[in-house]
Structures are given as structure tokens and as C-alpha cells.
Amino acid sequence: MLLAALGACAVPSREGAPTAPQTRTEPASPATGVSATAYVDKRAYRVGEPIQLTVEIHNGGPHPITMVHPDYWGVSEIRVSDGAGRHREPTSVYKAQRKAVQATLTVEPGATASHTFEELTTFTCCYAYTYRSLPAGSYSVVVEIVNPPLEVEPPSGWSRKWEGRLTTPAVDVTIGR
């Protein structure tokens, strides 16, 4: 796993997390040729069973793109809504120390790169936000990837050659008892 839990703690929601000066990023337009899709390893899970969500980033453009890696601090956000369309807050928040995080991801023209979010977990500058303990029900999951990250400075090696916001179509998941 990519994090070492240093202990569960009471933490504000993502909206209250520390932030760096924000830059405006626009959704990636179809003209850029960059798109994202998401899928889960199966559609139905038992309560407490790990959900692995994979995002594929496709570069349909004529040039390679180098983006900040989806697992880097503050780049990706997983949004979960219940069957009634209500936003769900993460079920667990951990103070986290990251290990071996890849800083950038390059996708060649015509290629697709993928990243799996283990147990529906994303990271900000100090915390891991996870949905690993969702109760039984139907859910819709969307991933948004933002370049550059809004909460921290981009890593060295990122050349600003691709900036934007990718949002996956919703993935439906059912959790049963």
C-alpha cells in the first residue's frame, strides 16, 4: 500500500485541507485529444471488501503529454454519491506518510496509461482520504484529475506541457451485505 498510517485522527473534510495558491484549470477539451475513463474490478462488493478503481488516460493527440501523476498529492479527487445522488464524505481519513510516489506520467500519442486507486484512496499534502468502509447500498464514483495540482506545488520534472482537468464518466458500484 502507498501509505503508512500514522494514526487515525479527526481531520476536516477535503474542503478544509491546507491549500496552496490556486490556479484555474479548464476541463480538457475534446480538441486536446486527452480523455479519461474509469472502471472497477467488479460491479458488486461485500461490505468491507476492498474496491480497486482504475483510471485510464488516453492521449488521442499528436504529441506526448506529461502530467503530474494521478497519485501525487492533490492531483486526483474521488467523488462518491449514493443511490439518491447525495455526496458521500470519505469513510476514513488518515495522517499519511507517502512512499515511492511517481511524480509524473507521460502518455505517448495514441497510447493509454492507467493508474489504480487502491481502496478508493486519494491524497492531499498530509492526509489520505478513503472510501474503504462504505455501508451497503448503490454508489456512483467519479474521478477528477487536475494538472497542475491545486493544493501543492507540482513536482520537479513536470514541464507544464499539459494543463487541464479530466473527469471520468461515473462508474456504478453496489455494496451488499
Question: Could you characterize the architecture of this molecule?
Answer:
The chain is mainly β and 177 residues long. It has a single domain (3-8, 30-176), classed as Sandwich (Immunoglobulin-like). Helix content is 0%, strand content 46%. It contains no helices and 15 strands. The chain has strands spanning 3-8, 34-40, 44-46, 53-59, 65-68, 76-82, 87-88, 92-98, 104-107, 112-117, 121-123, 127-130, 137-147, 164-167, 171-176. Strands 3, 6, 7, 13, 14 and 15 form a six-stranded mixed β-sheet that branches. It has a four-stranded antiparallel β-sheet with strand order 1-8-12-11, with no helix packed on it. A three-stranded antiparallel β-sheet has the order 2-4-10, with no helix packed on it. It is globular. The two termini are 25 Å apart.
List keywords for this structure.
single chain, 177 residues, mainly beta, Immunoglobulin-like, 6-stranded mixed sheet, 4-stranded antiparallel sheet, 15 strands, 0% helix, disordered N terminus
